[in-house]
Design a protein that fits this description.
The chain is mostly helical and 311 residues long. It is built from 13 helices and 7 strands. The structure holds protoporphyrin IX containing FE (HEM).
Length: 311
């Protein structure tokens, strides 16, 4: 889906797009709230915890596993696979091991999805695996690829949105104002997406010769679009280097643009809204330690974010 042009693209996306509409996803809200509360229960006893490891990483994995219809007794295995798929070397060492584990996770997961798809063919469940298994639009290989794509595209990106949100709120001293509702949570999420966009750039290959802003681009050239820079364009945003949740309009392109516009954008927004509100509702004090931030490589986010919460 993510790497093909229309009309092929429509065939691969069309069968599922309805399921990711905000209206359809609203039905899942109570279940996502429940899953979020369970994670917060685990955090509650700890004085200090890593927001990334304990909350921002597991939440999107658990939610997508639920939507796909992964049996809950396979959750831990599922998380291990998805961690291996997105693992990176921070200092250039261990690259061979990371690659080997990624390949192994891919193969195991591919086999696991293929089995589940087979079992659910002709079933009437409303999970995404059953939907993919019953659609005539896809080949078996495409069905497996679709399940893997949802994992890859949606997890680490949403993790970074959640982490960057806490980072911004701590930095700006806005935690309490969001808790009391003085600052709207949904607007905070849009401003985090603009100000600290999890995906900073996308590549495209030119199909034909074209001139863009005086630059000659030839068919076959790889062009990198910098979403992060566009989202701080002073011609579009007043004081773009300032974090201002109240800005209106906030026409960022953190979810891309055009036919490949993020399929999971409404889900990411819903998860972030539920997660921030639940966290700030549960704890009277939420403080993040910003003294020694380690940036991720590749995506805009943090390796870890030590937090202290109190009821
Ligand atoms: C904050 C979180 C997220 C961000 C910043 C993000 C960002 C993006 C961007 C920039 C694209 C466009 C890629 C391109 O044009 O080449 C994209 C595509 C996509 N995203 Fe997301 N995404 C997020 C969450 C999710 C979630 C939760 C899911 C699904 C569970 C998801 C599934 C997809 C899929 C399937 C595509 C490909 C769509 C297509 O090619 O038609 N994303 N995302």
């Amino acid at each position: 889906m993510i790497s093909v042009d229309p009309p092929e693209h429509e065939r691969l996306r069309g069968f599922v797009s309805e399921r990711f509409q905000p209206g359809t996803l609203r039905e899942y809200r109570p279940r996502i709230e429940e899953l979020t509360e369970e994670l917060l229960d685990d955090i509650e006893g700890d004085d200090r915890f890593d927001f990334v490891d304990s909350f921002a990483v597991p939440l999107p994995v658990i939610v997508i596993a639920e939507l796909l219809g992964i049996p809950s007794d396979r959750r831990d295995q599922f998380k291990e696979w998805s961690d291996a798929l997105v693992a990176r070397s921070t200092d250039g060492t261990d690259i061979d091991r990371i690659r080997r584990e990624r390949r192994q996770a891919q193969e195991e997961m591919g086999r696991y999805f293929a089995e589940l798809l087979e079992e659910r063919r002709g079933g009437d469940g409303d999970d995404l695996i059953t939907l993919a298994a019953t659609t005539e639009e896809l080949t078996q290989k495409e069905r497996v690829g679709f399940c893997m794509l949802l994992l890859l595209a949606g997890n680490i990106t949403t993790t970074n949105l959640l982490t960057n949100a806490i980072w911004c709120l701590e930095e700006e001293g806005m935690m309490d104002a969001v808790r009391t509702g003085e600052i709207d949570c949904k607007k905070v999420i849009e401003e985090v997406l603009r100000y600290r966009s999890p995906i900073q750039s996308l590549d495209r290959i030119a199909l034909k010769d074209v001139e863009l802003n005086g630059q000659q681009i030839q068919a076959g050239d790889v062009v990198t679009g910098w979403l992060g820079a566009a989202n701080r364009d002073p011609e579009l945003f007043d004081d773009p280097e300032e974090f201002r949740p109240e800005r209106r309009p906030n026409r960022h392109i953190a979810f891309g643009k055009g036919v490949h516009y993020c399929l999971g954008a409404p889900l990411a927004r819903l998860e972030a809204d539920i997660a921030l509100e639940a966290l700030l509702d549960r704890f009277e004090t939420v403080e993040a330690d910003l003294t020694d931030l380690q940036p991720l490589s590749g995506l805009y986010g943090l390796e870890s974010l030590p937090c202290y919460c109190e009821k």
